[in-house]
Specification:
By secondary structure, the chain is α/β, with parallel strands linked by helices. It is 40% helix and 15% strand.
């Protein structure tokens, strides 16, 4: 494989919690010419388990990687009630380009140990994502994580599309 051209649009690193790990991956991806999106996860305190806020994590990774910084960032495996308070104003928020929420706000390990999907309220989740799309029109990659399925994705798509349509018309 060495020496063969790599044709990749974007490498996505999901559910990161550790800044040093994000820095290392960013440098490695840059070294081999891969565009990278790192998605952080937050807990009910609106922080990452390892401590820093989303803003602090993104600014730290960017500051420590320089030209090797990720192409963008995202939020993954967190419910909107966990991550929305962390979306502080500032230029840094423009670096966040994707959101993949959990269907319910629940501690991650407990959620994984349930033995079934906890699907929450798909309609409410869709409305929450639509409101975020309206506030942050630069976010252009949407999806779902733990507990989400086709009903959730349909609601997210409809609400995000409606928010984007209203902004362009």
């Amino acid at each position: 494989m060495r020496g063969l051209p790599i044709h990749v649009d974007l490498v996505w690193a999901a559910t990161f919690n550790n800044v040093p790990e994000a820095i290392g991956l960013s440098r490695a991806a840059s070294r081999i010419g891969l565009p990278l999106c790192i998605s952080f996860t937050l807990d009910s305190s609106h922080h990452r388990k390892s401590g820093p806020t989303l803003k602090e994590a993104i600014q730290s990774v960017d500051a420590q990687t320089g030209d090797d910084e990720p192409s963008c960032y995202g939020i993954n495996c967190s419910h909107p009630l966990e991550f929305e308070p962390s979306l502080e104003p500032g230029d840094w928020i423009e670096r966040v380009r994707n959101i993949r929420p959990n269907a319910v706000m629940m501690e991650k390990i407990s959620l994984c140990k349930l033995g079934h999907l906890e699907d929450g309220d798909p309609s409410e989740l869709g409305k929450q994502m639509g409101a975020l799309a309206k506030r942050y029109p630069h976010i252009d990659m949407w999806g779902g994580c733990c507990g989400t399925w086709d009903t959730h994705l349909k609601e997210i798509a409809q609400n995000v599309s409606a928010a984007n349509y209203k902004q362009t018309h």
